[in-house]
Amino acid sequence: MRYTIYLTSLFLLLMFASDTMAQGDVQIQEYTSSSAVLPPDHLVDFIEQPSALDSGNTAWIIVATILVMFMTVPGLVLFYGGLVRQKNFLSVIMQCFVLVGVISILWFAFGYSWVFGTGLAESGNPLSFMIGGFDKMFLRGVTLETLIPGPNIPEIIFALFQCMFAIITPALIIGAFAERVKFSGYLLFAVLWSIFVYNPMAHWVWGGGWMQKMGAIDFAGGTVVHINAGITALVMAILIGKRKDYKYGQPTPPHNVPFVFMGAAFLWLGWFGFNAGSGLAADGLAANAFLVTHLATAVAVVTWIAIDWIKHSKPTVVGASTGAIAGLVAITPAAGSVDILGAMIIGAVSSLVCFFMVAYVKNKLKYDDSLDAFGVHGMGGIVGSILVGVFATQTVTGTEGVQGALFGNWQQLSVQFIVTVASIAFSAVMTVIIFYIVEKTVGVRVNPRIEEEGLDIYEHGETSYNY
Amino acid sequence: MKKIEAIIRKSRFEDVKAALLEADIEWFSYYDVRGIGKMHQERIYRGVVYDTSYIERTLLSIVVRDVNVEKTVKAIQKHAQTGDIGDGRIFIIPVDDAIRIRTGERGDISLYDVKK
Asked: Which positions ≥6 away from A364 have C-beta within 8 Å?
C-alpha cells in the first residue's frame, strides 16, 4: 500500500514537471518568434550580415596553413636532404629554407596581388591575361574584417595559405639540380621563376584566369604546383647537365635513409592540410579530400612496395617513401572531385608510372634528375591531372558539378588534357628563358672543384656532421 | 713485441672483444673500415639495382708482447669464425719499440701494468 502511494506521487510529480517544461518551451518559442522582442545585441550583426566570419572554417584554414608550411620545412628538407650525399646536405637545407623567407616577402609585396588581384581585369587591361592586378600589393585594402566570400574566412589567412603554396612549388624543383647548383644562381632562378612562372599559372587556375574559366579541375595544385615544378625540373636537369661523378644506372646512394623516410612521413602529414584545406572550408568536401588523399597514398605505397618486391625480391624504404610522394602528388588535383574508387586507381597508376619513369626512362633518356623531381612530381602531376578528367564524379562534386569520362563526360577529359599540355608548354618555355638569363648573369652551376668536394663547405662554409 | 691486425665481421666484434678481455688482452684500438673483396653487396635505389662493391668490416689493432701473440690470435680466430667466405684475415707485424707517454718507459714494460 505504501509503495502505491509512493508510485502515485512520483507519477504526479513527473506529470507536473513535464507540464511545466512544456510550458517553458512554449514560452521560449513565443520569445524568439515574437517580432516585438529583439535578439540580444551580439546576435544582431550575425542576423543582419549573412557573410559574417565563419570561425570553424577559419580555424581549419589556420591549421591547414601550418600543415602546408610543415611540408616544406622540415618535410621536403628531410626528404631531399636524406637523398643527397653528406657533402651536399646543408646546401639542400639552405635552398629550401631560404625560399620560406624570400618567397614570403615577394608574395606579400606583389605576388598575392598578381595572382588574386582583380584590378587589371576590371579595367580591361590586356595584361590581365597574365596577372590579376596591382591593387592588393602589400595587402592594400585588406583589413581584419575583409572576408573571402563563400567560406567567409579572413582574406589575411587566405593569403597566408596561398603563400605556403608559393613557397613549396619552387622548392620542389631543387630535386632536379641538387648537388651541382650555385646558390646565388639558384636564388635568382627561384625568384624569377616564382614571379614569372608560378604567379601567372596560379592566376590562370585559381585567380579567375582562362584555365579556371574553361572549367579545368585543379583542386589543390596538380598543374600549378606539381606539373609546373616537375616540368621545370626536367628542363633544368637537361640544361644544367649531369653531375660529374654520376653514371647512368649507377645511382648515388642516399646519405641518410631514415631522413628520407621522415621527410616522406612529414609530407604525407602536411599534405592533409594541402588538399583538405584547399576547399577553404571545414566541410564534407574537406573530409572527402582528406579521405581520398590518404587512400590514394596508401595504395601508391603498397603498389611501389609490391613492384620493388616482385622485381628485386626486396621491398625498400626509399621505394616506399617515393611511392607515397607519387600517390600524394597524383591525388592533389583530384582531391575535390573523386571518390574512393577514383582515389585508389589514381594512386596505383601514379605509382606504376613513376616507378617506370625513374627506374627505366630516366636512364634510357640520360638526363640527370638527381632526386627525381620530374619522375615523381612531374609524372605524378600529369597522371593526376589527366585521370581526374576520367574519375571526377557527381557524388563528390554535387548534382550540378563536373564529372569525368567514366560517367560519359568526355568534354572534361579534353579540358584536362588541354590544361596539362598548356602547363607543360608554358613552364618549359619560361624555364629555358630564365635559365639563360641566370646563366648569362651569375651562372647556374658551381665549378667542378666545388662540385667534387661538396657544396656545403664551399658554398656555405659549414659541414653537416662535425666530430 | 708484435702488432696484430685483424679484419673481422662487424657482427663478430662483441664476441671477439669478450674473448680478448677473457685472455687478459685489455687494451686495443678498432676501426670501422671499408674494403674491396670477392663479396658483393647489391643495393636497390628507386628500382635500379647497383653494386657499391665495398664491404664493411671492423679492423682490430692490438700491440702485444711476444708471449701473448698466440693466445690473442687464437681468441680472435675462434670467435671471429663463421665458416662462410668473408670472415677476414689476421696479420702479425713486428714492432720496433713502444713508449708510454706518461712516464717515458720504453719497450715491453710500456705495454702492461706492473702492479698486476
From this structure: none
